[in-house]
Queue: 4 jobs
Job 1
Amino acid sequence: MVNIVAMGGGTGLSILLRGLKEISNHITAVVTVADDGGGSGVLREDLGMLPPGDVRNCILALANKEPILQDLFHYRFQEGRLKGQNFGNLMIAAMVGISDSFEAAIKKISDIFAITGEVFPVSEEDMILYARLLDGTIVAGESNIPLEVVKRGTAIDSIWVEPKDAKTYEVVLDRIKQADMIVLGPGSLFTSIIPNLLLHEVVEAINASSAPVFYVTNIMTQPGETGGFTAADHLDALLKHTALKKIDYLVANNGSISLETASRYFRESAEPVFLSEEDRKRLNALGVAVIEGDFVEEKVGYVRHNAHAISHELIKYIEKVYKD
């Protein structure tokens, strides 16, 4: 069975995990802990705990329990003092309260949901994401960075986490070492994917790994993070802002998006991420192979990655790599 390590955060990672679950029982999701917005941010500030939102979504993606329990874990309160708060976040907070660590709490909840694989926060430390913008402004906090980029009409010049010497778990390093494939993304480039790779131990383990590394680009650009980026620009930023030395494959969508949906995104200053001929030349020069396909789904006016299509395409490449 293929050992898969998938890294990132946000909705993108949880969607991909649903597809990876179809091709392997040995999945390790490594989740960013830089989130400081929404309900997760409230619990992080009030209780001094790691943000649970992205971890919760990954547990749901890998869960094998009956739908009613999953619906409960996903439920968001609609009124009162808890309005906007997620029951799953509160359950994680409660489990942290009766456990020795955040990691132990996640393990217990993972057992309750009988998940396929494992979910780990990238670190147990209280990491804060910082960015220096091209105009010299320094912004603190994952949720503030894209807002300030848009507000100031500039771009991100550099990005880092504090503490700069934040550590990961030994088990995460072991899973990377044992991996047959490592998948980065999809997700917000600067606030979901790059933060994991700002931990020296993590990026060094990936660089030392013999497993092929796949980077799944977003389907649409994101205002405040990747406005105007091509597929190759995404990869350039990933390499520029981290010490990552190896990306073997770039996974890009070439499926079409309806005019109605595309227009909606255009109004929000987002556009499709496609590969140009210039991109192909740049990627070829870097020794990065391209995997293209119709990897997009449209749901209620939104685009999402087709996790089934991506996962089954990735396993073809893995089988070829280890066959050769």
Note: The chain has 14 helices and twelve strands.
Job 2
Amino acid sequence: MTLPHKIAHRLQVSGRVLAASLAGVLLQSAVAVPVRDLAVVAGARDNQLSGFGLVVGLAGDGDKDPVYTQQTIANLLVRYGLNVPASTLSSKNVAVVLVTADIPAFVKPGARLDVQAASMGDAKSLQGGVLLQTPLLGADGHVYAVAQGPLAVGGFSVGTSGGGGASVTKNHPTVGTIINGALVEREIPATILHDQCIELLLREPSFISAARMAEAINLTFTNAAQALDSTSVKVRVPDGLAERLVDFIASLEALEVTPDTPARIIINERTGTIVATSTIRISHCAVSQGNLTLTVSNTPEVSQPNPLSSGKTTVTPRTQTKVSEQKTGIVSLPELPTVEKVAATLNTLGVTPRDMMAIFQAMKQAGALQAELIVR
């Protein structure tokens, strides 16, 4: 073998080794996720239920005699053979609540659901209350479950509100939960098989994730899956497995797929929270951030009239305004290919989360931030 051929052979071998090494690094860094965590089967969805009910036993913390609460109590008493005028009733121990629950697909009658009850009136607290039997209706107006039981509030409110009164409130005492508080009375019909096919709906739409999911399914079930769009993957049930649909779907959900993670930064200015994915990149740019602080203070001053004069003592405010600006130079940032380097570099600048939000927005406008910026 001549020298040029030897050099070419070595370059080919080195290239193969480098490609294999890079492939190994990518496989190690990629995180495979089961299909069940990425998608749901079309038709096997939850449904929302709601109902209007009464919570009793509130020891004076209930509604302050609104008309709808009194009328609801009167309607309840009619069911027990008591006809009492609504205006004569007191609702101090009763609160009108809206009861909500989610019922999954294929839940059979007799199963239990968790429910939440939230006060609709001016009740002070639902602590210690018991929800009376409340029908839970679906969007079609049919009753699918019935809720009843004692509420778990997880908070309290004590004391007297208003002028001169002190009160202490922990958590949110006007919303409560009843674990297994609803009894399912009717199953919601659900159909997941259409023309010998099922459809998987991605929780996070992505063309890359949909294509990867279809490819992973086809490796196990040949030519069974097709990505229709960024959200849907259509899967044909193989011959002989239509009668064993549960086993087939279980096999699909157990398959592992490497999802696509978009480059995205979420900024919540109300809470000062910043969340970024690991794929964000920042191009070479220069940053200068200075804090401008404006302070306005009012100091009351007393103006006294001259002796034996008819003037009156008055209080006048004295306003002082102070402006301070932090002096900072321009910092040159190199290209930052990972979120770890981005965070470390911005932290060295000593900026606050609020300043970091402004920097990210300015970088996006300058075209240096290679990621989607979402401001809440």
Note: The helical segments are 3-29, 35-38, 67-79, 207-220, 245-254, 339-348, 353-366.
Job 3
Amino acid sequence: MPEYKKPLPILDSDSVLFWEACKRHELLIQQCEECGSYRYPPRPICPNCFSLKARWNTSSGRGEVYTFTVARVPLTPEWAPDVPYVVGVIQLDEGIRIVSNVVGCKPEDITIGMPVDVTFDDVTDTITLPRFKPARENSQ
């Protein structure tokens, strides 16, 4: 595997289960055991009811593009080979929003409300990043 030079997530006690699941190509989301709300990013306290109790649920991995931007100028030299690339806010069917890349289509084909499915990018031996691609029923 070639060396990955872009920033990587820092695994901590709140997020390690999320990242371990991504490595297995599974998207997990925390859900409060008290009020039932989903939360992302993973954290120890529910932002709705302040409970410390949470469980992990497997997400469908389906959602839609809530909003997006096309990066045409690299932020740092490491990103230069990827321009143009899409940074999107994905609203999952479970109701939470995740910031990620939209891949598998041209930037000009992306629209707000476009259905997407999670896909996984094994960028290092230990880190796999969730990204989103056009949903199968939306692909040509």
Note: The mean pLDDT is 95.
Job 4
Amino acid sequence: MYSSKLANVNIPNQESNFHQSQFGRQDRKLSFVVVGAGLIGPRHASHIVSRHDCELFAIVDHSLNGPSVAQTFNTKLFKQLPDLFEFCHRNNVKFPDAAIIATPNHTHLQIGMQLAKNGIHILMEKPLAPSAIECKTLIEYCYSKQVALLVGHHRRFNPYITAAKNSLFKLGKIIAVQGSWTLCKPQSYFLEKPWRSSKQKGGGTLLINLIHDLDLLQFLMGPIEKVYAELLMKQRSATDNDEDMLTYDDLVDEGAVLTLKFANGCCGTFVCADNVTSPFLFEAGTGENPTIPFNDSISGFYRIFGSSGTLSLPDMKLYHQFTENESSWLKPISTCDIPLDYREANHDLFGMISPSPSPDTKFEFNEKPKPFDLQLDHFINIINGDESIVKCTGEDALQALLCIDAVMKSIDTGLPQYVERVESVQPDLDLLATFG
């Protein structure tokens, strides 16, 4: 049985402290393959080719986008991973060192297992997989193959989030949090990729978008223990979403309102919607996504309330009464700004330092580093052994997915739900045995 094989493998704990002896600096350029040529894959490919120490081996994509993306980056194109492996075997070419997977959610497990089986390090776009069992299976398989696994919750690298995390001590005891991710997705978004309208294939704003915010809230405040959720009214018709004419019940969610209870006692509320006209979302407030217009007047898409102060993001305003002997509603509240020093934005919370997005690029003082780039640099550092702690592990991604599962169960039952513990999830041993 596979479990006996797994017992002989040194599996790191949840902090995923990969020692430098496990991965080492390469004497040549790191070779990457990008799997998926949709919205995100080309962004990763662009940064890979910008680095002098990396090369883009190929694009893997079977869609109509594949040829043009491969041509743009002057690289090889394969429709499926087995085609790439066959090419390498036939031509006695070394497999790529690492892969970035930016494909529909339901494909993640099989693609990840194929890559790990061949010793290729993985940066997987979130969610790690559509189900908790699939996540745990891929996590343990990567450990058994000594393959680095980084999950693409890239907002953990955003300067707004690192500055907020480093400033939480100023708030005293964290009592509550309030947040929103609210915008309007156009019809073209769903027509471009029909899987986005399918529950079975991992569509819906709760899995595609809310999972980012739940990951960030847990990154800032620790694990979420209990959730209660109510769905928002659906606004889109079947013809707006899929040419197969899905029924109303088959259509993916368009958002929900949540109440949250964190393990540390903090409570919160969150509104997630992709069917409203609104600028109150992470991308609009931070300018992180180039496809969503930046709005520098946005404030309070997150508000974190503490006994000694309140922090508002992305305006980075700290409201406090530090000059008073005792906090009171009868006394004025002062405001100060939390600075975003981009020279310091790459310092992680474990005392490690990630380099600037590329050793070939130098930032001006007020220029925002791109979280996608910082994430890729961290991935490269892990592979080379320059960093030893993975900043978004498979377990972190599984924890976020378990929160989404609890949200879905709450919607189905109409009752609050406790979030399942990561440790209680078991892998698919049959699948592990199949891959060997």
Note: The two ends are 10 Å apart (CA to CA).
